[in-house]
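Deliverable D4.2, example record:
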Amino acid sequence: MLKVAITGNIGSGKSTVSKIFGSLGIPVFIADEEARKLYEEEIVSRQVKEMFGEDIYESTGKLNKQKLAQIIFNDASALRQINNLIHPLTLERYTEWLDEYQEHPYTLHESAILFENKLAHHFDKIINVSAPIEIRLQRVKTREKEENQRVLERMRNQMPDEEKDRRADFVINNNGKQFLIPQVIEIDKLLRE
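Output generated by the structure prediction step:
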């Protein structure tokens, strides 16, 4: 079984592309979802509070995501701290998850910051979903109702598309002009061979 990573910057459409692969019967591990679950675990929440203070969690015990985002997207050191805590645990979950899907020709691991966190060596092949910054900005603003400035701050913490395209084995262009499904089907065919 091939371990395939799918990455792409915020607003590129990697989740949409992952769903298309899923509809072809390919299991998809979504790293962001797993990371969100980790924040609710006692051992993780204790460490996050030690890093950023008790008020990083609401009185209900839920992580204040806006507050955390504001801290980590404006402080490279804080971003490194949180990534050093969450990413190894997420990778551990992924390794356990893989055991369930050994009979598939390949699996997908969806992660926005795969290259940034130096995780590429864990995978046999990498797909990058690429889209122009103007399109990505519009998608994120529509989806998350965020201001341009906050979205741009998040984008600055990600490697440029051109660099990700260069490092990836496959590139899916999600510029609104090319259809996604034929691109996914072509890659799926190559990965099954």
